[in-house]
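Example 9 (inverse folding). The structure is encoded as follows.
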């Protein structure tokens, strides 16, 4: 059943509920007044009997009304949660190196801003069938790198939250050494964490995603002293709204310098469990502590949870934030080989227990954002400024424009 999401429908439901409650209250008051009648014996007993009958009828009507009111309020709460969740999805889209805007030159841009929700899906590595990156960005150990998140493609405005709708949770950055960053499969790579932030303060409660919003979607970290070579960099937000939602993008890097470290690694998928404390959590209970999922960061220390207010003043100079994305290669960057397509992970298959497992061949199924050539799955992106992917939606859905930058199959 399709839910009417319009503000007018919500007001109509509330109005009906209030009218029903007011009518019951008025009849209760009238009955109370009539019960006090003592003007004459015969009239009193006749009305007393009538009042008793009407009280019984009123009680029955109240019992019938109560579930209806509960259902109305539940519908409103459910509708509000859907609207908040749908309006708050986001993607990591750009990168900065030592204050120089790299744009989206080396990022494998996701097909849509919808989250990955399965910790066992290969999509949790680098998102669902991302667009191929234009090239590889150059960094050195010790460089300051910032990844940049926004809700809509090409929207770099600091006036809009990077990720909204109370998607509270941690921000994390992983890296994986690979032979060729332009062709490496994230689900097959060996990852180590280089930075993380969870719950910087519990008094008042203040999450890493709120720090992200206060800094125009930027999360900044330092490249550790690692061995030179090509790497994938994975930026991730875990938004805890009615269950964990994973928002990630992979960037293609060439690390220079003379570092020698090769940190211990984990697999993604594999590093997270659905019941891990930092994933299976009710953030609305205002936790005093939070266990960030995944391994300990290499070469850095995660900030402890403060019991005093965390500064909300932006550390990123928002006055320098550009309004557009560069269309040329950043300094020192290399272009991807011609006809290079972003690697796609094996499509997940459903096991008897209801979990997802990778299929035997990554080429045996199309990416999960499409079911056939030119056919976009429900909730997938189908249009918008700068979009060049498929525009035909699966049966039962229509390509709906949400704004000039983003259209979605709904």
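The amino acid assigned to each position is listed next.
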């Amino acid at each position: 059943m399709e839910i009417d999401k319009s503000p007018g429908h919500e007001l109509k439901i509330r109005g009906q509920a209030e009218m029903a409650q007011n009518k019951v209250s008025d009849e209760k008051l009238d009955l109370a007044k009539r019960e006090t009648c003592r003007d004459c014996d015969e009239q009193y007993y006749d009305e007393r009997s009538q009042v008793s009958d009407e009280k019984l009828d009123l009680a029955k009507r109240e019992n019938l009304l109560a579930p209806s009111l509960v259902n109305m309020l539940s519908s409103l709460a459910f509708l509000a949660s859907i609207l908040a969740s749908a309006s708050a999805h986001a993607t990591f889209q750009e990168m900065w190196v030592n204050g120089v805007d790299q744009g989206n030159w080396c990022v494998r841009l996701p097909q849509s801003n919808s989250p990955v929700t399965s910790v066992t899906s290969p999509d949790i590595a680098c998102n669902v069938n991302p667009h191929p990156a234009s090239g590889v960005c150059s960094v050195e150990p010790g460089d300051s790198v910032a990844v940049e998140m926004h809700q809509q493609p090409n929207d770099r405005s600091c006036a809009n939250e990077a990720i909204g709708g109370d998607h509270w949770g941690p921000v994390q950055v992983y890296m994986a050494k690979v032979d060729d960053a332009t062709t490496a499969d994230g689900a097959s790579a060996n990852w180590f964490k280089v930075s993380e932030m969870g719950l910087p303060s519990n008094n008042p409660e203040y999450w890493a995603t709120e720090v992200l919003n206060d800094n125009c979607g930027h999360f900044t970290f330092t490249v550790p002293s690692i061995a030179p070579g090509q790497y994938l960099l994975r930026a991730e937000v875990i938004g805890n709204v009615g269950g964990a939602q994973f928002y990630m993008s992979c960037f293609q890097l060439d690390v220079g310098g003379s570092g020698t470290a090769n940190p211990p690694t984990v697999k993604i998928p594999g590093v997270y469990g659905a019941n891990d404390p930092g994933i299976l959590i009710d953030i609305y209970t205002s936790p005093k502590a939070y266990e960030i999922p995944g391994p300990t960061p290499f070469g850095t220390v995660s900030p402890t949870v403060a019991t005093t207010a965390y500064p909300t003043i932006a550390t990123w100079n928002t006055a320098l934030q550009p309004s557009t994305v560069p269309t040329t290669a950043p300094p020192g960057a290399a272009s991807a080989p011609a006809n290079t397509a972003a690697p796609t992970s094996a499509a997940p298959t459903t096991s008897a227990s209801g979990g997802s497992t990778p299929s035997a061949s990554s080429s045996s199924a199309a990416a999960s954002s499409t079911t056939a050539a030119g056919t976009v799955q429900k909730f997938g992106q189908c249009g918008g400024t700068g979009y060049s992917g498929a525009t035909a939606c699966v049966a039962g859905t229509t390509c709906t424009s949400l704004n000039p930058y983003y259209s979605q199959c709904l």
